[in-house]
Amino acid sequence: MEISIDNTFLQMPIMQNPVTPYKTKTYNKDNQNKTYNKPKMKTTKKNALIFLFTLLNLNAICAQMLEGFEYVKADSGQVINGSKGENFFKLHSQGGGFVSTMPILWDTSYGGYWAAGWAISKKIDGSLGNSDFSKHLYCAKPGYGSEKGINGKYKGTTFAVGMNKSYILSPTNPLKGFFSNLKIANTTYAYNSMKNGDAIAKKFGGLSGNDADSFVLKIGFYHKGKLLSRFSVVLADYRFADNSKDYILDSWQTVFCAKQGVGQLGPIDSTVFELQSSDSGSYGMNTPGFFAIDEVGADLWVKVVSIPKMLALSYPNPAKDKVRVETTGNMDKIEIVDVLGKRVYLEAGLNRKAFDIVISDWAMGVYRVKIITSIGIETCEIVKQ
Predict the structure, then answer these.
(1) Do 83 and 223 lie in a common domain?
(2) What pLDDT digit, counting tens, does each position of 319-365 carry?
(3) How many Cβ atoms sit within 10 Å of the Cβ of residue 33?
(4) Which domain does 107 fall in, by range?
(5) pTM above 0.85, yes or no
(6) Strands, DSSP E only, in 224-375?
(7) What is the spatial distance between Cα 289 and Cα 247, in angstroms, rounded to a whole number?
């Protein structure tokens, strides 16, 4: 796990007058500037205690962990998107009491495709050109992950790609369920679409360059389905009166959630990432609804330690009216919640391995299914069209 100190460290003074072992003083004597070294400060009991206090605070700050997804086991150029049965990524805390979950949904219809949630990517390609779904969907526009080498250039090999309305759940310890900071970037697919337009989406700014277009990621923090706070990260902005100021984000941008007051909100059990584009129609956004994240910072991260397999099966998926859920063990209870953690369905005493659920009156979106069976808990997701 990479341990790092970001800019927040520079803005968090440990003490007003830190101990300085050596100090130089410059003054003018005989019209000449001379520099003299002040003798080394004597070590006193008071100074020793202050220095110890400084070290303890420094150690506490250094304990912040950044999850850069580098620990995910995958070959170069590979993507983990649920196609092999992965249901979600889990981030575990140092003490084991805090688990954060990043859900994935792979739809098996039409030959199979990534339908919702997150993907972990090792695809490196930030090239300009036409918007290419098959080539650039899992690529970050900066070309690499957000980690930098000694030359200041990006060198990270792994990052996460999120789809519109992706979410992260932190239900086991909601008191610690927030991020202090994270890096955000456009995907190459979305960037090239906004830059040049494609078969569905417009070129940002239009032909004249004067269209007031924008692409914004809104990050919302929830507890038990209630929105506590939300702030926005602008991924593209063509709303300036001066067109020379228009831009599409092509680098990794650090977002300090703590500066948005997230740490003072109280318990947070889910974080929702929602995209909004000025280029939208009756069927939703025309701009590709994808973004990338990396180096998620929190006091408790250690690493991605598991990618559990999907045991339960739901089909058809996506669906409009009815879904069949099948499990390996005999079902006892089915519980379904929406993206905000609100329960929408509960059925108990089933004693079967297949069950049909009517969803025709549900709102469009992604729903998590937890099924208690004779062999344990099996999970899956349902996408309501």
Answers:
(1) yes
(2) 889 999 988 888 999 999 887 778 899 999 899 999 999 999 998 88
(3) 8
(4) 65-306
(5) no
(6) 226-237, 247-248, 253-256, 270-277, 280-281, 284-285, 290-298, 301-306, 313-315, 322-326, 331-337, 343-348, 354-358, 365-373
(7) 18
